[in-house]
Write a structure and sequence with these properties.
By secondary structure, the protein is of the alpha+beta class. It has one domain. The chain is built from three helices and nine strands. A hairpin with a 4-residue loop joins strand 3 and strand 4.
Length: 132
């Protein structure tokens, strides 16, 4: 676990356990070259989450509506089952918690990787502040 108050300027993802959502800020999508579709991959052995560019015919592809994304509006994915699996990998996550995970790979423009152990716990007020 890390602590850092300057998360709004960093590409990453927010895991919102309470609302069963994965929130992906615009800056993270932009770092991937504004893909039309993405996949979410999880490596349970290394505890990494990956966002990968894909096409609409790819297994479990998710359409990214780039036209409605803005710096103040994250891309949100309702993912109750996935969130439950993620919390099983990190049992110290609180059941109603919210966590920011910064992007670990900065050289790739087609995917984004997040090491779950680098999470930063967020207060409810901080979650809204990220998008301001």
């Amino acid at each position: 676990m890390h602590t850092n108050n300057n998360i709004s300027s960093r590409p990453g993802i927010v895991i919102d356990i309470n609302k069963s959502k994965i929130r992906i800020p615009r800056k993270t999508i932009a770092c991937m070259g504004d893909p039309e579709y993405i996949q979410i991959l999880v490596n349970p052995s290394t505890k990494h989450i990956g966002l990968v560019r894909c096409n609409r015919n790819s297994y479990s592809s998710i359409l990214v509506d780039n036209e409605t994304l803005s710096e103040k509006t994250p891309f949100e994915i309702y993912a109750k089952g996935l969130i439950e699996r993620l919390t099983a990998l990190l049992p110290d996550w609180k059941k109603k918690g919210c966590y920011f995970i910064p992007r670990t790979n900065t050289s790739s423009t087609s995917n984004a990787v997040f090491r779950m152990s680098d999470y930063i716990p967020l207060k409810a007020s901080e979650v809204d502040d990220i998008w301001q």
